Structure formats: C-alpha cells, structure tokens
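Memo to structure team: turn this sequence into structure tokens by end of day. - J.P.
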Amino acid sequence: MDSVEDVEALRAGEVILPRERALVGLARRVVLNGGVLAGAEIAAARDAGLTDQEIVEAVTAAGLGSLFNAMAIAAGTGAGTGAGSGARLRQSSGTRAARGGHAANARGP
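Reply from structure team:
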C-alpha cells in the first residue's frame, strides 16, 4: 500500500484487512470528535490484533495530523488543504505508520 490511490482508499474507509479497518475507524473517531466515545473503535482495534502501544500511536498520529491541519488552515498556509508535496509526504508517512507504527516513519520511505 504505497500509492496515492491506496491512501485515498484508506481515507474513504475502503479497506479489506481487519487491522487497517480498525485503524481507519479509530483515526476517524479521533479526527471527527477528538476520540469521544471511542470505546467501540478501541475494542475493534484490539480485536484486530493491535497492541495498546499501537493504539496509542494511532491516536497520537491522528490527533497530531488534525492539529497540524488546523494550525495550517488558521495560519492561511494552505498546507491543510492537501495540496503540494507536503501532502504527499504526510500520505506516505501515514501509510508507513499504518503498517508498522511510528518506528516505521523513523526509518523513512
């Protein structure tokens, strides 16, 4: 899962693997309402085999992504709109994090 199409499928919730489906559901809950009442999503993540550490990493990544986008939009930089190479870098980084946690991001593409 490395292409822009793959990332778009993740954003649309079009995922097959239970692990990815659980991560997308949890990330959506965090982005849409800060994770309020995320018990079902956390349970689904655990049922899909994610560890508590991986769940914390997913929540942190989703929260930081939302924070970054909100700050960029407020600053008027346009970075939060998904345009340009910054968006491609975030998409690539997000794909690596979904696969192997943030340790995968530290290793690079």
